[in-house]
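We emphasize that the prediction below concerns an isolated chain of 112 residues; any contacts that depend on oligomerization or on bound cofactors are therefore not represented. The input was used exactly as deposited, without trimming of termini.
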Amino acid sequence: MAQALEGCKPMPLKQKKSPMSLDEAETLAIQVLAFLAEDGARFSRFTALTGIDISDLRAEPPSRLPLAAVIEYLMGDESLLLMFSAEARVDPADIAPALAILSAPAGPRYRG
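Result of the prediction step, given as a token string:
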């Protein structure tokens, strides 16, 4: 058995990503929003299906709920998700953690 393993190189371990931060999740949601806004038809469909308008996104203090809705909308359309991921060079696997963070109960920094 030992002879069979001679000369075999160990596979490099995949480096584990550190957990996504709230700031990273917000940044990702804003990138998705910019991606949607680049195309008028895409943005119109987003606002029609989510009921979110631009004033919801400009609220102060910021609310995580509209940002979570942006991510959730993207996750609901696989072709759109893959198009965004390719254009923004974002791993599609990073989208779900952002939604989890933005959907979590809010701290004192946020309204809701």
